[in-house]
Write a structure and sequence with these properties.
The protein is α+β, with helices and mostly antiparallel strands. The protein has three domains: 278 residues, 3-Layer(bba) Sandwich (FAD/NAD(P)-binding domain), CATH 3.50.50; 84 residues, Alpha-Beta Plaits; 97 residues, Glutaredoxin, CATH 3.40.30.120. Helix content is 28%, strand content 27%. The chain has twelve helices and 30 strands. The protein has a six-stranded mixed β-sheet. The chain has a five-stranded antiparallel β-sheet with strand order 15-16-17-14-18, covered by helices on one side. β1, α1 and β2 form a beta-alpha-beta unit. The relative contact order is 0.13.
Length: 506
């Protein structure tokens, strides 16, 4: 049985572990920490991430603990998510430690156990596997696995051991974050307050305490510098002239706006995901969402290769699809930090951008970029849906009513037949062990896409396990295109009745 070692039991590593186990791949999940820290960290979940969790049938447990917030933001300028064509047109306020707990519960249900106090210190690749040296409380041990995925954060040991460079830009500012109680909180909660010497953001995440974030430009602390509540107090007073009666700190941390991205996401049998592959300023709350979506893109591909169904080259599409997505996040977070800098010149620019955000098209563009609903992989132009997320349609099947996302609960590709005239069961028989063929009807024949509006629904679609469209029927006879898509994304036909093409991205 193929085995994948995942280093890092944060949201990305936990999501990836669940994706692999759902597909029947054995997982070894390790983390150098002795136990989960319980630090609150990231504070929100965006619409596309909620859709991804819905696709796996586990979203309800997250919605039960979160709080909907109808807006997002771009450098503190409010963005309206409410008009987006999704069942979840909002941000879900849910602290990272809760997300990790729920994802760990899901991974445990699938048979994954986190091996704490286990640090990766060596990687030796061979043609048929990887020898991973780990340091544990019991001493040094060596594990032999088929693949290794580094989900171990911005200082990733896996990335360094694999010899993958991490180029980017250095920090130009320092933000100090504190989860504290406030005797006299500011009136305008949840919006960025700008002052002469920096910025201030205060959230009331949970009853009784607040998250306070100060940002001071051109003041850069070393990443290893320890900050305490007194340092946060001094920063607050420098910026706002008051500490708002701050007391009883739960967690104090600091971060900068360094933005770096791995120059490649794969080195042989070693891959990277989440912060191990990209770091950036947390403007717009994109980091945790980006990592979870990395995991969902990689999981089914790695499972298909590890189980022998698909060729090794399928893994190259993980980098070709996800590297540009993270590069766009680094680009927009750099822009957001520049737009937050104090001073009259930036203030004039902010007033202009704020006016532009009031236009529907600008709001739609910026909000779609932040919440990832506009994501479009370059999978062809034969139909508007190619490379885009599948809308969550209400469907009627012979077995009863269902939804598109429900069909993806098992993380298997779905060929959805909505009235295609071809004999799809016969055409796809060679992939029946890897493909769910569903015949259904829907009244929503003109679904709306976030970036282009209503489109005409094709008569059949091939939906990848991550929810993106790999093939859509057109008016012409595109049976060859369907067979090519099946071979590209699922591997060769088991009965060898299709072509031998295995080059991804046709």
């Amino acid at each position: 049985m193929a085995t994948v070692l995942i280093a890092g039991a944060g949201p990305t590593g936990l999501m990836l572990a669940s994706e692999l186990r759902t597909a029947g791949v054995d997982v070894v999940l390790v983390d150098r920490l002795a136990e989960r820290s319980g630090e609150s960290r990231a504070g929100g979940m965006h619409p596309r991430t909620m859709e991804v969790l819905d696709q796996r049938g586990i979203l309800d447990r997250f919605l039960a603990e979160g709080r909907p917030l109808q807006v997002g933001h771009y450098s503190g300028l409010a963005l309206d998510f409410s008009d987006f064509p999704t069942r979840y047109p909002y941000t879900l306020v849910l602290l990272q430690y809760r997300v990790e707990r729920l994802l760990e519960q899901r991974a445990a249900e699938l048979g994954v156990t986190v091996r704490w106090s286990t640090e990766v210190i060596g990687i030796d690749q061979h043609d048929d596997g990887v020898e991973v040296t780990v340091r544990t409380p019991a001493g040094i041990d060596t594990l032999t696995v088929d693949y290794v995925v580094g989900c171990d954060g911005g200082r990733s040991a896996v990335r360094k051991l694999a010899g993958i460079d991490f180029p980017g830009t250095d920090a130009t500012l320092t933000s100090i974050l504190g989860d504290v109680e406030l005797a006299s909180p500011p009136e305008d909660l949840g919006s960025m307050q700008r002052y002469e010497h920096g910025g201030l953001l205060v959230f009331d995440f949970e009853p009784g305490w607040y998250r306070v974030v100060t940002t001071e430009y051109d003041r850069v602390l070393d990443r290893d510098t320890t900050v305490d509540v007194e340092e946060l107090r001094r920063s607050l007073i420098r910026i706002a002239g008051t500490d708002f009666g701050m007391h009883s700190p739960r967690w104090i941390s600091h971060f900068g706006d360094a933005a770096r991205q791995a120059d490649r996401y794969r080195a042989g049998r070693v891959l990277l995901a989440g912060d191990a592959a990209h770091i950036h300023f947390p403007a717009g709350g994109q980091g945790q969402n980006l990592g979870i979506q990395d995991a969902v893109n990689l999981g089914w591909k790695l499972a298909a290769v590890a189980t022998g169904h698909a060729p090794d080259t399928l893994l190259d599409t993980y980098e070709s699809e996800r590297h540009p997505v993270a590069a766009r996040v680094l680009h927009n977070t750099r822009a957001q930090t520049a737009l937050g800098r104090p001073g009259p010149h930036t203030e004039a620019l902010r007033e202009t951008v704020e006016t532009l955000v009031g236009f529907d098209d600008v709001n739609r563009y910026l909000a779609g970029m932040i919440n990832a609903l506009d994501l479009h992989y370059p999978l062809g132009d034969a139909h508007a849906l190619l490379g885009r997320r599948m809308p969550d349609l209400d469907l009627k099947t012979a077995d009863g009513d269902t939804r598109t996302f429900t069909l993806l609960h098992n993380a298997r590709p779905v060929l959805l037949n909505l009235g295609h005239p071809a004999d799809l069961p016969a055409l796809t028989a060679g992939w029946s062990d890897r493909l769910d063929l569903i015949t259904a009807r829907t009244e929503d024949i003109h679904p709306r896409l976030p970036d282009i509006g209503p489109i005409e629904l094709p008569t059949a679609l091939l939906i990848r396990p991550d929810g993106y469209i790999a093939w859509a029927a057109t008016e012409s006879d595109n049976t060859p295109a369907l067979l090519d898509a099946l071979t590209t994304w699922l591997g060769p036909s088991s009965d060898s009745r299709t072509t031998d093409s295995t080059k991804p991205g046709h």
